[in-house]
Amino acid sequence: MTPVLKYNNLPTVALAGRPNVGKSTLFNRLLRKRRAITDPTPGVTRDPVEADCLLDGKPLHLIDTGGFKLADCEGLDKLVVERTLDVIKKADLIVLLLEAGEITSEDEELIDVLRPYRKRLVVAVNKTEGGRREADAWNVLTFGFDKVLMISAEHGDNIGELEQEIIKRLDFSKVEEAQEEQVIRIALLGKPNTGKSTLSNRLTSTNASIVSKIPGTTRDTVEGRFRWKSQEFVILDTAGIRRKTKVTENIEYYSVNRAIKTINDADIVVLMIDAEEGLSDQDKKIAALAHDKGRGIIMALNKWDIMPQLKNTFKDAENKIHFQFGQMEYAPIIPVSAKDGSGVDKILNTAIKMHTQLNTKIGTSHLNQALEKWLQEYPPPTGPQTRFKIKYAVQKSSNPVHFILFASRTKAVSDPYISYLRNKIRKDLGFSLIPVLVEVKSSSGEKK
What pLDDT score does 245 carry? Predict the structure, then answer.
């Protein structure tokens, strides 16, 4: 399992502002890594992006909100604004980010919205690097703010001053350093509109991810935590992944790449599959990426509540997936409904069992006793060109589970024989639910 240093009772800081003032750039700057997607296109951030961070050694919870638009906005923009306002109401401190230059009507409206929260408001004017447009920026004082900070999120100007102001305005007296805790990190991947955000919200009992019928609603990876059966989970809700030929915007390109990279950050990938559409070529590519990384894979047939409730419906769907992706029969297939919650408990139970297998370490002595038995049951070929000997084996790592076989003639070890040994490892050593990586290396004195 993945150990995580955790704090309790962290103060929360929300970054607020209209679209394209640099909130995501500031978020990444304070976090000291690229976590939120940044792009010149207004409205890139939709879901609030959250992370714990340290400012001058002080831990806090930082939230990058979606851009505030005028109150008469509709559709997806309205959902973004509603989520932003929810975050603002709950935050311990709000950093209002404005842009040097003319104050827009959206700025003015957000300033009016924030007036009741003046006591927990820090105002910063962005894009003033090297003093650029600083004279115009002081016009912000006409709105009655006691103090305004001039910063550049992109270039780092006066960020230290902003950090000190944030620290000064927060109460850290209730913060406690928790003991290291083992967590299971689950990434939700799949095509757009397969129910990833709905499932994420159900698991975390929040509305952290915006749910909409509009494909591509989720852009940044939305991270949430929850506890189930005394086990701590981290859930990573990702952008829907489409074929490259259909990705036409830079923003979606970054979103898709960020989603794929979450495979590296996860222990288990839950591949969300539309039950009506079945397994697609894109689903196969996602599963193959997870397999190659040695991640646990659960195939969730979502929207099962609208499928015909006939005796063999699930069995037929399962057989079809196994036929399409025969080399991944180890991956559990679970019918679920993210909407009504059916099947969700089974996903979590399976994830716990899978995670145990991912972190299992087999002793070298036990492994080689089993190897000797497998070699006797199905001896290697004895022909002059195909002959080889497997001398011994070691487990290189857990999570991912990776074994190394040392052979006398590596080039003679065929893929079918490697598959035989891989299947034996999975069946006899307790790795029935996960991918097993097997590598063949040369033993000393290999014959050419």
Answer: 45
